[in-house]
Specification:
The protein is mainly alpha-helical. 33% of the residues lie in helices and 6% in strands. The protein contains four helices and four strands, in the order αββαααββ. The strands form two sheets. A two-stranded antiparallel ribbon has the order 1-2. A hairpin with a 5-residue loop joins β3 and β4. The protein is globular and about 60 Å long. It starts with a helix and ends with a strand.
Length: 157
């Protein structure tokens, strides 16, 4: 269910998740129809910007998909990861090279920031690569990943 929720936040115009998703609680307007929202967006004015609506190339969802794929072998995790990869390529790739953050995940004509976080290369792309790699590449019974996505060998005394 946790991964399902992470993937659900990618159901935006760009297919990328917002920096911050706020979850509705029972009794809130539209809580029966919508589980989450981006705070600060005006549904009547799609041009409004909200700090929460940015996508800054974070790795957490693809990391979760990679771990779920390795644990279950369920192809849905690869399919979800591929959709995210395609959205990253479509909306964040810079023609001259590199990738950039975007300011509005619910706009296909989103403004871009001139900024690529270092974790994009060291984590996001690494986890996408591993999601589509053979399980013999950094097997999870032999390696553990630290919080920065670096594989460390598991030592057996």
């Amino acid at each position: 269910e946790i991964i399902k929720t992470c993937v659900e936040t990618h159901n935006t115009a760009t297919g990328l998740s917002p920096e911050i998703a706020h979850f509705k609680t029972p009794g809130e307007p539209d809580a029966d129809f919508v589980d989450w929202y981006i705070k600060g967006l005006d549904p009547l004015d799609p041009g409004t910007l909200s700090f929460d609506a940015r996508y800054i190339l974070r790795p957490e969802t693809v990391e979760s998909l990679f771990l779920a794929w390795r644990q279950t072998g369920d192809p849905k995790y690869r399919a979800q990861g591929w959709k995210i990869f395609e959205a990253i390529e479509k909306y964040t790739k810079v023609e001259s090279g590199g990738y950039t953050s975007i300011l509005h995940v619910n706009s296909t004509h989103t403004p871009r920031e001139d900024k690529m976080e270092t974790f994009f290369l060291s984590e996001t792309l690494k986890y996408l690569y591993l999601l589509f790699s053979d399980a013999s590449t950094l097997p999870l019974d032999q390696y553990v990943f630290n919080t920065e996505g670096h594989p460390l060998p598991i030592f057996q005394p």
